[in-house]
Amino acid sequence: MSVLKAFVIAFSMYSKIPMPQFEWKDRDMKYALCFFPWVGAVIGLLTYGWGMLYQHYEVGPLFFAAVGTAIPILVSGGLHVDGYMDSMDAFHSYQSREKKLEILKDPHIGAFSVIRVIVYYLLYVGAYSELGNLKAVALVGAGFFLSRTLCGIGVVSLHGAKKEGLLYMFSSIAHEKAVKIALYAQLAGCAAVLLYLSLWVGIAALAGALLTFCYYRYRCYKELGGITGDTSGYFVTLCEGATVIIVAVCCIGKFI
Fold first, then answer.
1. Among 17, 36, 45, 39, which Cα is nearest to 182's?
2. d(CA 187, CA 160)
3. What are the structural domain ranges in the chain?
4. pLDDT, tens digit, for every residue of 33-64?
C-alpha cells in the first residue's frame, strides 16, 4: 500500500493529473522519487500519440511543434519551467550565494528569466518542427523519462544548497538506497529503449543528457553551493531542450 501511495504522491506533486487525495505520511513518501520518471513516461506516451496523429492527418509543422511543446507544460503544470525561470534570475543576478538563494524564493520574475525562457522556447519549437518521423518523436518522448530519472538521481546524490523546501523534504525522507537502485535501473531501461530506437542517435541523446547533468552540477555548486527544488526544475527543462535539439539535428543530418 505504501508503494501505491508513493506513486500517487509522485504524480500529485509533479503533475496535474488528478489523483486520489489522502494525508501524506513519511512512510508513504520514502519511495515517491522512484515514480517521478513515470510522469515523464506519461508525457512521452502523449507525445508519441500526437506524433501518430501528425503523421495521419495533414498538420503543419509549426502547429505540430506548438502542440508538442505544450504537452509537457500542460502535464507538469509548468512546475519545471518555473524552476528554470527562477534559476535564470538567480544565476544572472551576479549577487552573493545568500542573495541568489533569496532570489530563488522570490515569487516575482525578472527580466533575465523572461529573456531566457523566450529564447529557450524559440529554439525548442524550432527544433521540434524538424522532427521528421515517428521514430524521432519516440526518441524525444523517451527523453522526458530520461530527464526525470537523472533529476531524481541528482536529488538523492547531490548536495542540497539549503536545509528547507520541498527538495530537502523529499531527499531527507527518501529511502536513499531503494530510490537509487530504482532510479539507476530505470536509467538503464531508458538507455536501452533509446539505443533500440536508434543506436547512434540514442548514444547522442544519452551523451547530451549526461553532459547536461554534469553542467547542472557544476553550475549549481559554483553559484549556490548545491541544488534546490528550483534548480531541479531548471535541469529537467534544460535536459529536455537538449534532447529535442540533438534529435532534430540528427533528423536534419538524415541519421534517423
1. 36
2. 22
3. 64-252
4. 999 999 999 999 999 999 999 988 878 999 99
